[in-house]
Amino acid sequence: MRLIIIGAVAAGTSAAAKARRNDENAEILIYDKDSFISYSGCGMPYYIGGEVEDAQKLTPRDSAFFKSKYNVDIFISHEVLSINHINKTLEIKNLLTGNIFTDHYDKLIIATGASAVIPPVKGAELKNVFTLRNIGDMNQIKGYINEFSPKSAVIVGTGFIGLEVCESLREIGMDVTLIERLPQVTPGLDEDMAVYVEEHLQKNQVKLFTGASVVEIKKDKVILDNGREVAADFVLLSTGVRPNTDLAVKAGIELGATRAIKVDNRMMTNVKDIYSCGDCSEQFHVVTGKPVYRPMGSTANKTGRIAGDVATGGDLSFRGILGTGIFKVFDMTVALTGLSEREATKEGYNVVFCHNTKPNKPEYMGGKEMVIKGIADKDTGRLLGVQIVGFEGVDKRVDVFATAISYKAKVEDLFHLDLAYAPPFSTTKDPVLYTGMILDNAIHSDRKLISADDLETLISSSKNYQLIDAREASQYEENHVETAMSIPHAKLRDALDDLNKETMTITYCNKGVTGNAAQNILLNHGFKEVYNLSGGHKNYSKNKKSF
User: Fold this and answer.
1) What does pTM read for this prediction?
2) Beta-sheet strands, E only, within 351-455
3) Are residues 55 and 96 in the same domain?
4) Over the chain, what is the mean pLDDT?
5) Are residues 336 and 431 located together in one domain of the fold?
6) In whole angstroms, what separates CA 470 from the centre of its chain?
7) What does the alpha-carbon distance between residue 269 and residue 281 come to, in Å, rounded to a whole number?
8) Which candidate, 289, 258, 293, 290, places its Cα nearest to that of 278?
9) Which residues are in the Rhodanese domain (predicted)?
10) Is the pLDDT confidence value at 212 over 60?
């Protein structure tokens, strides 16, 4: 059997390695139009900033490595021009010589990846304007910085790559401004979690313009749609990627709802003996079962392995993704998995969510707070998604949540997880367990939660309510929600006669725990409708629109 793979980065080389493990006798060839293969794209921002000093560490494998270890022939600087699935042939151009020739296959795997989206902005072709998608892009950026020593940078887009490069440019002393057309940074997060990232960026002297677009780039500045001019002698366009599907479309291969290559759970396309994997192919979501497009290196490796296995007679199948992601911005870690509140609401779930602020380990062991937003379906109790912003231990928690969501766990199940505990690593009740407890209470008891947005709406309405600040009086005096009355938790029982049991009541503290304790007292004394402010005053103060 002759297996040809188009593309030699994460998915393509994973497919080749798995195919060789399955079949020692198969002829396996890879064509790639780039000169770099099997590279660590996620490490590129750290080379730009100097944290990774040797670029070769991001490209540890070359064609000779794959030939010697896997007996796979990789031809770099070779572009596949067309696919004839009737004759099972490929038209290929050697980009170094210009020679065009034909090759044939028995099985074909398309792993053509994705390309950076370049917005239609005047000046995008200038030499100080870059995208970052491959090693060539990385080397151009590094070379430009070394040669011209730019002082001011504008990054357009605030996704993973944009924020990672932001940190790297700040590390080498550049002034950085972020431009985001949406009203928040980090589009994958809900707005009430994105505010934590925005605040942290500002603390690290990064300028932000949200709800703004670049309309023109010049050699020393960019011009925004509101007319504002921002100094920039370096510009990075980090506005997303699109799957490379032209070759597939010309061959009659079907695209999916996301306009990536449509595949089944065995990476098969609609054309016999042609498979697709990696950033050019569509995935499906574990929670909804619907098509999604989330190009990630981890998914590329996984789908590549499956394609290589199936193409050589194996029985692996793809089980979907949750869109799990994690990145570092300065010393903050941001992670997400599953559906956001926004996505879950759009999908029609009866959404309940909470904000849980807890340290990753005891404070006496140097624990640092993380904020966990848990999203669940109120009707079934199923955990739908989680977002975390913190400093240590975020990766550990998001992986636990991702596992739980993959196995359709309900929020009540989280409390029963037997997670590892010792003071250097966790609190006795891990933040994961607390998140489950809070959501379980909100779903299965009268311990209802109210969000910062809903409280703002209530305050501006004519509805009758009573709002209790259960913190110490000194905290209340320093700052409080504008219509709140100060009744510290320790004095609440003595003040019950001054409150109306029939009136809607909201309690809050600094982070949520004492507010919940106050809520319990009121409910146990016959108050009819009592809410606790999700995430407490700390979360409210960051998310209050008019704050």
Assistant:
1) 0.94
2) 351-359, 369-377, 383-390, 448-450
3) yes
4) 96
5) yes
6) 35
7) 9
8) 293
9) 461-545
10) yes
Question: Do residue 269 and residue 212 come from a single domain?
Answer: no
The domain boundary residue, chosen from 261, 283, 311? 311
Per annotation, catalytic residue among 42, 280, 354, 509: 42
Q: Which residue has the tokens 């509101």?
A: 226
Summarised one tens digit per residue, pLDDT across range 184-199 is 999 999 999 999 999 9
Given 444, 464, 499, the domain boundary residue is: 444
287 vs 190, 316, 339, 349, 408, CA distance in Å? 18, 20, 8, 11, 8
Largest Cα separation within the chain, whole Å, is: 91
337-359 burial code (b ≥16 CB/10 A, e <16): bbbbbebbeeeebebbbbbbbbb
Looking from the CA of 15 toward its CB, the CA atoms found within 13 Å total: 37
CATH code for position 219: 3.50.50.60
Residue 42 is a catalytic residue: yes
User: Using CA atoms, how far apart are residues 399 and 403, in angstroms rounded to an integer?
Assistant: 6
Q: What is the pLDDT of residue 40?
A: 85
What percentage of the chain's residues is helix, strand, coil (to nearest 5)?
35, 25, 40
Q: What span, in angstroms and rounded, lies between the C-alpha atoms of 291 and 289?
A: 7
Q: Residue 413's pLDDT band (boundaries 50, 70, 90)?
A: very high
Q: Is residue 15 part of a domain?
A: yes
- The CB density around residue 382, as the number of other CB atoms within 10 Å, is 17
Interatomic CA distance for residues 389 and 373, integer angstroms: 9
CATH code of the domain in which 478 resides: 3.40.250.10
Question: For residue 215, is pLDDT > 80?
Answer: yes
What domain range is 246 assigned to? 2-39+50-113+242-311
Residues 399 and 341 placed together within one structural domain of the fold: yes
Residue 95: predicted pLDDT: 98
Per-residue pLDDT tens over the stretch 515-528? 999 999 999 999 99
Residue 124 included in any domain: no
